[in-house]
Design a protein that fits this description.
InterPro entries: Rpf2
Strand order of the largest sheet: 1-2
Shape: elongated
Structural class: alpha+beta
Keywords: Nucleus
Number of strands: 6
Protein name: Ribosome production factor 2 homolog
Oligomer: single chain
Largest sheet: 2 strands, antiparallel
GO molecular function: rRNA binding
Order of helices and strands: HEEHEEEE
Radius of gyration: 44 Å
Main location: nucleus
């Protein structure tokens, strides 16, 4: 009888996937009685081949071609999310020659060059080639 139970146990272990139908039955207490019925397709696997190959054949089977192994790239790494991180090396920079942002507020203007907002000549602004203030006092 012990061998029969072992065979049933082996048959259950060798199954690849279990799908069950949940059947709720009446019970005398507050907790319902639940039974699981196996359903759907099931496959029984059995190990047939247990012999180990010879050393030379086993070594040849486990050999990986060099083209499959990825070449390590310098200064590159990958974080846990799969993003690539790299370190870039650049030469020394001349900070004096770098073009920075041009700000109008810091420009040096002469006090005589101001633009007329209205383009009106009678308001103390004179036109001479463009809308420039001549330096006359406005009334």
């Amino acid at each position: 009888m012990a061998s029969c139970c072992n065979e049933d146990l082996l048959l259950q272990i060798n199954k690849a996937r279990f799908e069950f139908l949940v059947v709720m039955l009446k019970s005398a207490g507050n907790v319902p009685r639940i039974e699981l019925l196996e359903m759907g397709p099931s496959i029984d696997f059995k190990v047939d081949r247990t012999k180990i190959a010879s050393d030379s054949l086993f070594k040849a089977a486990c050999k990986k071609p060099k083209s499959l192994t990825a070449k390590r790239r310098k200064n590159m790494s990958e974080d846990v999310f799969g993003s690539q991180l790299a370190r870039v090396h650049i030469g020394k920079q001349n900070i004096d020659a770098i073009q920075t942002r041009k700000v109008k507020a810091l420009r040096k203007f002469s006090s005589a060059t101001k633009i007329d907002p209205k383009g009106d000549v009678s308001s103390g602004w004179k036109k001479d080639g463009g809308n420039h203030y001549n330096g006359e006092a406005m009334e």
